[in-house]
TrEMBL record:
NCBIfam families: ahpD_dom. PANTHER family: CARBOXYMUCONOLACTONE DECARBOXYLASE-LIKE DOMAIN-CONTAINING PROTEIN (PTHR35446:SF2), SI:CH211-175M2.5 (PTHR35446). It holds the Pfam family CMD. Residues 45-115 form the Carboxymuconolactone decarboxylase-like domain. This is Carboxymuconolactone decarboxylase family protein. Transmembrane segments: none annotated.
Length: 176
């Protein structure tokens, strides 16, 4: 059961009203998370900016979805987990790789290494080593792609934590 109410452009105030109005005019409808985030224009605006920025990430989307799956398993947000599993499937990630992502790994050593990094960023960023970063470069990741992992993790922590706080669960979201 949701703990926070959804807002609409009619019920939101100030910057949140403007943000929601813009989203509704561009997309037709908005999902529960976004409409609930509107209680805080700072959170909603930050989410929208980070989400747009990560759309320009150098990290391959199929890889970032697997990272997102691993992070959401760790965090426990079923709504986000379902969304990232669906996105991974839509991008052609096979079921075995989706299951591996649930377990925080991949059959591809390069993807397994970047997922490991993402989970360390969540759990214990002080454990990241110089050798680990060198190994990621040897797997073909640029410094930009490695840095993008922090953005992917941050976006997942933001959305997952918000959904958990707001009481948003799978099946409760009614739009994008």
């Amino acid at each position: 059961m949701p703990r926070l109410t959804r807002l609409t452009p009619d019920t939101a105030v100030g910057a949140s009203r403007d943000l929601l109005s813009d989203l509704v005019s561009r997309h037709g409808q908005i999902g529960d998370m976004v409409s609930t985030m509107a209680h805080s224009p700072a959170v909603l605006g930050g989410y929208l900016q980070l989400s747009r920025a990560m759309g320009r990430a150098k990290l391959d989307r199929r890889t970032s979805e697997r990272i997102s799956i691993a992070v959401q398993v760790l965090q426990g947000c079923g709504l986000c987990l379902n969304a990232h599993v669906s996105a991974a499937r839509a991008m052609g990630v096979d079921e075995e790789e989706i299951e591996r992502a649930h377990a925080g790994t991949s059959a591809d050593p390069a993807i397994a290494a970047i997922i490991t990094l993402a989970l360390q960023i969540c759990r214990e960023p002080t454990s990241i080593t110089d050798e680990q970063v060198i190994a990621l470069r040897e797997h073909g990741y640029s410094d930009r792609a490695i840095a993008d992992v922090v953005g992917v993790v941050a976006l997942n922590i933001l959305t997952g934590a918000f959904n958990l706080l707001a009481g948003l669960t799978p099946g409760s979201d009614t739009g994008a």
